[in-house]
Amino acid sequence: MRLEDFDYELPERLIAQTPLQKRDSSRLLVLDKKTGEIEHKSFPNILDYMEEGDTLVLNDTKVLPARLIGMKEDTHAVIEILLLKDLQNHVWECLTKPAKRVHVGTVVVFGNGELKAKCIEEKEDGIRKYELIYHGILLEILEKLGTMPLPPYIHEKLEDSARYQTVYAKNIGSAAAPTAGLHFTKELLEQVKEKKVNVVYVTLHVGLGTFRPVQEENILDHKMHTEYYEMSEETAQVLTKTKKEGHKIIAVGTTSVRTLETIMTKYHCFQACQGTTDIFIYPGYQFQTVDCLITNFHLPKSTLIMLVSALAGRENILHAYQEAVKENYRFFSFGDSMLIK
Question: Which residue ranges make up each domain of the chain?
Fold first, then answer.
């Protein structure tokens, strides 16, 4: 499969730069994966596609203020790092810019020295491992020195950092938001529960694996980075019951899909577990868990557009994206929503 197979034209004006005033006021494109039929709705209409006994699966990860800008201790050259993965014992895997200036032994200083990062390993694709040196609680230091790691296509300043978190964000550890969930309000989730639809949570800490661009011409040569996931016993039981009784599992976001499919592939059932995943889902993949997906509109040539193409068919997805462009939908992280049913 070629990378070009997942390309499409997108006018820059359709890339959403700021969130809408109300989370749930976004538009909703509904795509029938069997027929390719498209409907244009508003996000609260999502309730019309859920039935009693169905289960909505949300990723409750919380975004770290993980973008840090500091200076090399010796030359004062400006270095930016993005915290990607906590490897324990104060060691973190980080995306570094410009990586060519950072080698083993390099120390980057942030703020007035409240935080230092000493490079202990050089990896490919701009990744470095750092030992973080600080006193106190890291999260408090990051809240003071760090900023939300907004994607590079967003050029506007985010006035309220809470808008890059879901209303149900709980487990801190992501380098990017699971943006499909940004459309939900607490009130809308209550309405979901009033329909006797189960609402359960998994955790997948979004890292480089989710948003790293594909560069290989043959997509099968692409290597996913690993990301941490976990599922509780309660979630496993609800999902098992949902499947057994023939109801729908509705995943919110590609990260929820990847978590569910990883667990089912590994254990052949839903069960309480935690681990890391580098699952890469592209057309030809046979889904074992997910019936419907609530998602945003994804970047051309990304692993995310490959995942939705695997679920709904590449031609259906590209046609839906063409329709979304024609109808002036807002794209990417702060953009409109799509339901694949």
Answer: 3-63+160-340, 67-145
Whose CA is closest to 59, among 195, 180, 209? 180
> Residue 54: is its pLDDT beyond 70?
yes
- Is the pLDDT reported for residue 208 higher than 80? no
pLDDT given at position 145: 96
Spacing of C-alpha 202 from chain mean position: 13
d(CA 216, CA 111) in angstroms, rounded, equals 38
For 180, left (φ over 0), alpha (ψ -120 to 50), or beta? Answer: alpha
| Long-range pairs of 306-310 with CB within 8 A, sequence gap ≥ 24 | 306/6, 306/214, 306/219, 306/280, 306/281, 306/282, 307/254, 307/257, 307/258, 307/281, 307/282, 308/254, 308/338, 308/340, 309/6, 309/282, 309/283, 310/281, 310/282, 310/283, 310/284, 310/285
Which amino acid is located at 304 in the chain?
A: L
% the chain with pLDDT above 70: 99
* CATH class of segment(s) 3-63+160-340: alpha beta
pTM, two decimal places: 0.92
